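Hi all, posting the design record for the shared folder.

TITLE: backbone redesign
STEP: 1 of 1
STRUCTURE INPUT:
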């Protein structure tokens, strides 16, 4: 996923302050160690993980991630953490 593809997702998350903490937690959990040593020099999940998730979600690694789907995922993560 290119950094440009993240812009609409980041913008969508910024419009939902309730999910900010969950988004930060998921970013921390999913970002590989030493991310600053590898291009694109952003704290994003590993390319293999993103490819796997895109294939399982949309059936193709080339499909763009939907901001709505990411918000739904974060809401689910939020609910799971709250239930513990």
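Okay, here is what came back for every position:
SEQUENCE:
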């Amino acid at each position: 996923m290119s950094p440009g593809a993240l812009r609409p997702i980041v913008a969508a998350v910024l419009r939902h302050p309730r999910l900010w903490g969950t988004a930060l937690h998921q970013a921390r959990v999913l970002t590989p160690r030493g991310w600053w040593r590898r291009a694109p020099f952003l704290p994003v999940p590993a390319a293999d993980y993103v490819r796997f998730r895109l294939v399982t979600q949309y059936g193709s690694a080339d499909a763009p991630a939907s901001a709505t789907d990411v918000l739904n995922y974060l809401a689910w993560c939020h609910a799971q953490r709250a239930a513990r």
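COMMENT: The mean pLDDT is 90.
Let me know if anyone wants the other runs.
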